[in-house]
Amino acid sequence: MLQIRELRYAWPGGGREVLAIDRLDIAAGRKVFLHGPSGCGKSTLLGLMAGVLLARQGRTALLGQDWAALRASARDARRADHVGVVFQQFNLLPYLTVLDNVLLPCRFSRLRASRCAGSPLQAAKGLLERVALPHTAWTRRADALSVGQQQRVAAARALIGAPELVIADEPTSALDAALRDDFMAMLMQACDAAGSTLVFVSHDDRLAARFDERLSLPELNTALA
Ligand code: ADP
Ligand code: MG
Question: Whose CA is nearest to atom 16 of ligand 1?
């Protein structure tokens, strides 16, 4: 699913290398917990995996394709086809309804739309059921929802059209303990149902036990040494 070799990354203008990873492979269908303290490069690594950032050196390949070999427009199309993302915050387009937010990936990717059983609308509704969002909320503007509800909608949007890779960047940090457990269970089940590989970032080690694999970024990232 993901293959990293001799990766080196420095932010433009920054000079200093923030990531150096010699080798990392993530197999299809795995659920991976990526952890480490703030500033160790977790979000940067997710950006590289999703082809939002480009390494200045090495290979970062998704489904056998190195992101660096593609033009920007091809990277955008490939990301829309194969990657679902849940961020820590600012997840949804506030002025769109919940349903329209969930449908967004299918507007950008015909492949994602074509993978929806029935229609994209039916798939969106099915996912909103799965994340237990009340029907009355489906046609409301996204910014009318609580933070916990918005994270559930963001997860539904990441999962629609069964992308091969789902990446989540500290999606539970704004949730209290009870909501966090619900959210985790829902995300795991939905990834299983879609057959998606999950790369989940958190500094909360209590979540680690639920995953197939645990990766410590400070151990992987030799730029921190
Ligand atoms: P984490 O997600 O583990 O907290 P980040 O990947 O956000 O870590 O950050 C890794 C390093 O890159 C930090 O030193 C941070 O200051 C730096 N960094 C993060 N984002 C940017 C950016 N947009 N521009 C320049 N430096 C950045
Ligand atoms: Mg981060």
Answer: 39
